[in-house]
């Protein structure tokens, strides 16, 4: 039974404050969960509590004054009951009373502590009877948009190591591409431009989408992985949608122009994944683009914000073949599972994802394996808050020999 729930302020990878919550049961068995934080958030995400100076003390207070009392004495293995208790205690549509950061850090700490109490790996505890496999990583190796200081409007340029027999081989091949990319940048712009963006990708002084795609694709080819590693992008297009137009590559484009724009890029480059290509309210154009690009997984992140209500709309309108799953967008693991299951039932590809502001908590690696997710998105293969997830996946593969398969 839960003896203690206690929150505290820690720092995240952007140097901002965030919340870590500890849950303690009998015999001092205790674990923690951290809340990550986004920079390019969807407008329908559950709200995090933070004061005007950036402190998350209001969320810490919510844990220590309200959540701890409500959960005291409950069986830590009853994740659903515990999450529903928090949802009821909060009582708002968007978690604005307790804060999604207070709630998700608690929800994760509950799952981790329960697993520890049972002496189980977290993925085994959560996944139970599900078959497990290692997800394919989508590695963001070139950063733009709100995650970098350059002029690129597209937020993320991803490499996707698909055709490998093992996760470790796939990841180590991605490292080669990452290093080749850094060398290309050093040659073309100078070493100072190999400085990193928020998710650990390089952020060279490029302006046009094509220039970035060209550079990353060249890195793939020069490393010899043209037939094994493919390309993806997260446009995070709500961030450059201004007054009904998209401001990109030095011009203003209408929503219909953007359909042609992406189709043209997908013709030139092996883009198998395309996240948030339009503004978060434009379900219709997601559908049009998805029906046009048969070999690309068009994916909704800001479009759905891990909320079943919006996923149902996306399913009706056949908006996307893929969904991003970010536990902190909705605030509890129970709701995250519901969202994931709805996507699965509808044969939609799942991508368990980090945020641009992360901590060393590697929970999402276990979560992705637990749910047998198709993909995981957790940044470049560099910087501790990203490597903690990759290293955990390497550890799971090493200990359990789980399969790595082409899930396209
Ligand atoms: P965020 O970006 O964490 O800054 O919201 C990640 C994403 O858009 O996928
Ligand atoms: Zn995104």
TrEMBL record:
Keywords carried by this UniProt record: Cytoplasm, Glycolysis, Lyase, Magnesium, Metal-binding, Pyruvate, Secreted
Q: In which pathway does it act?
A: Carbohydrate degradation; glycolysis; pyruvate from D-glyceraldehyde 3-phosphate: step 4/5
CC cofactor note: Mg(2+) is required for catalysis and for stabilizing the dimer. Binds a second Mg(2+) ion via substrate during catalysis.
Specify the Enolase C-terminal TIM barrel domain's residue ranges: 131-406
Q: One Pfam match, by short name?
A: Enolase_C
User: Transmembrane stretches, by residue range?
Assistant: none
The catalytic activity, as recorded, is: (2R)-2-phosphoglycerate = phosphoenolpyruvate + H2O
Q: What are the binding positions for substrate in this chain?
A: 147, 156, 275, 301, 353-356, 377
The record, for CDD domains, names: enolase (cd03313)
**Which residues belong to any copy of the Enolase N-terminal domain?**
2-126
Q: Tell me the cofactors it needs.
A: Mg(2+)
Q: Where does this protein hold (2R)-2-phosphoglycerate?
A: 155, 326, 355-356, 377
Q: Does this UniProt record's set of keywords contain Lyase? A: yes
| Listed SUPFAM superfamilies | Enolase C-terminal domain-like, Enolase N-terminal domain-like
List the record's Gene Ontology CC terms alphabetically: cell surface; extracellular region; phosphopyruvate hydratase complex
Q: What is its EC number?
A: 4.2.1.11
- Domain of life according to the entry: Archaea
> One of this protein's GO BP terms?
glycolytic process
Localization, UniProt: Cytoplasm; Secreted; Cell surface
List the molecular function annotations (GO) for this entry: magnesium ion binding; phosphopyruvate hydratase activity
For this protein, the record's Gene3D superfamilies field holds: Enolase-like C-terminal domain, Enolase-like, N-terminal domain
Residues annotated for Mg(2+) binding in this entry? 234, 275, 301
Function field: Catalyzes the reversible conversion of 2-phosphoglycerate (2-PG) into phosphoenolpyruvate (PEP). It is essential for the degradation of carbohydrates via glycolysis.
Family stated for the protein in its record: Belongs to the enolase family.
| Name this protein carries in UniProt | Enolase
To which species is this protein native? Acidianus manzaensis
């Amino acid at each position: 039974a839960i003896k203690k729930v206690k929150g505290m302020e820690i720092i995240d990878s952007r140097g901002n404050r965030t919340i870590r919550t500890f849950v303690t049961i009998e015999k001092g068995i205790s674990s923690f969960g951290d809340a990550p934080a986004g920079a390019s958030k969807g407008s329908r995400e559950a709200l995090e509590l933070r004061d005007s100076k950036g402190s998350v003390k209001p969320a810490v207070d919510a844990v220590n004054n309200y959540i701890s009392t409500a959960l005291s004495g409950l069986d830590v293995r009853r994740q659903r009951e515990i999450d529903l208790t928090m949802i009821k205690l909060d009582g708002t549509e968007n978690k604005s009373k307790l804060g999604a950061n207070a709630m998700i850090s608690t929800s994760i700490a509950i799952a981790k502590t329960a697993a520890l109490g049972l002496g189980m790996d977290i993925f085994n505890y959560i996944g139970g009877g599900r078959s497990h496999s290692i997800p394919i990583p989508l590695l963001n190796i070139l950063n733009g948009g709100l995650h970098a200081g350059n002029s690129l409007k597209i937020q993320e340029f991803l490499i996707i190591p698909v055709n490998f027999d093992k996760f470790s081989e796939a990841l180590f091949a991605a490292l080669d591409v990452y290093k080749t990319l850094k060398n290309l940048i050093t040659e073309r712009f100078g070493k100072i431009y190999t400085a990193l963006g928020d998710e650990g990708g390089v952020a060279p002084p490029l302006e046009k989408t094509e220039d970035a795609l060209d550079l990353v694709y060249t890195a793939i080819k020069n490393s010899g992985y043209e037939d094994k590693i493919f390309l993806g992008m997260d446009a995070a297009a709500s961030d450059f949608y201004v007054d009904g137009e998209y401001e990109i590559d030095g011009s203003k484009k209408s929503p219909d122009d953007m359909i042609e724009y992406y189709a043209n890029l997908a013709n030139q480059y092996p883009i198998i994944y395309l996240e948030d290509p339009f503004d978060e309210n434009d379900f219709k154009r997601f559908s049009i683009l998805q029906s046009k690009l048969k070999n690309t997984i068009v994916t909704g992140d800001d479009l759905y914000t891990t909320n079943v209500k919006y996923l149902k709309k996306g399913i009706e309108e056949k908006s996307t073949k893929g969904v991003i799953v970010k536990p902190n967008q909705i605030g509890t693991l129970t709701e995250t599972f519901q969202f994931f299951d709805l996507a699965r039932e509808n044969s939609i590809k799942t991508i368990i994802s980090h945020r641009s502001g992360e901590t060393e908590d590697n929970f999402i690696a276990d979560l992705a394996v637990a749910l047998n997710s198709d993909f995981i998105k957790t940044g470049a293969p560099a910087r501790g808050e990203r490597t903690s997830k990759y290293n955990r996946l390497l550890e799971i593969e090493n200990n359990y020999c789980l399969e790595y398969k082409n899930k396209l």
